[in-house]
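Students often ask why inverse folding is considered easier than folding. One informal answer: many sequences map to the same fold, so there is more than one right answer. In these notes we will look at a single instance of the problem. The structure comes first.
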């Protein structure tokens, strides 16, 4: 299992492509904006999109869901607790600022511990609430997509609807920092990091 990424939208969201190097089957994670750029990269890399995954339902992570889903005719996955957000993309000023389109409903709701097949590779779903009630992380082969739960030197906001600081701390300390120190962490915004680096130096959780 391997990954590529592209930065999209005014809030510089990391959109990830998780793919099986044998089959080139690919999951598109958090297409927040700029569908044309995402589609162009898929073509350039010869990826074969099979799944559309949202780590959570905030606008800057789902803004291009519809364009990507319709282009490739692939199922959309999100946690059920965040599914109502898919229906409210255009009801905020932020949605207009980001150039978001309305998202279609989910085809599947994640379950904690669920394993998602991508070609001959597998991603494991870890429910990591705190930034939102339905936030999830994806554990791959040597890397973790942490969404907006854990950043390099920071953590996600908890002052938005559905956010919870106690849940955020529990998710990070009990579910992420228990992973091997060398585990690469791929956040929803900003540069990648490792579990060990955040365990030792992140001022919000040390």
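Output (designed amino acids):
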């Amino acid at each position: 299992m391997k990954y590529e990424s592209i930065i999209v939208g005014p809030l510089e969201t990391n959109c990830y492509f998780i793919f099986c190097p044998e089959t080139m089957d690919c999951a598109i994670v958090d297409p927040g904006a700029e569908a044309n750029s995402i589609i162009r990269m898929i073509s350039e890399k010869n990826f074969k999109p099979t799944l559309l995954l949202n780590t959570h339902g905030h606008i800057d992570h789902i803004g291009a869901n519809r364009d990507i889903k319709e282009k490739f005719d692939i199922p959309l996955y999100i946690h059920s607790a965040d599914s109502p957000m898919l229906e409210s993309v255009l009801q905020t000023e932020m949605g207009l600022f980001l150039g978001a389109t309305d998202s279609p409903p989910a085809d599947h709701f994640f379950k904690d511990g669920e394993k998602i097949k991508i070609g001959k590779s597998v991603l494991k779903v870890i429910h990591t609430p705190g930034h939102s009630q339905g936030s999830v992380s994806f554990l791959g082969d040597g890397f973790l997509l942490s969404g907006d739960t854990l950043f390099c030197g920071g953590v996600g906001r908890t002052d938005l609807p559905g956010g919870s600081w106690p849940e955020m701390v529990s998710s990070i300390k009990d579910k992420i920092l228990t992973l091997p120190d060398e585990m690469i962490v791929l956040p929803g915004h900003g540069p990648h990091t490792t579990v060990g680096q955040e365990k030792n130096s992140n001022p919000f959780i040390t």
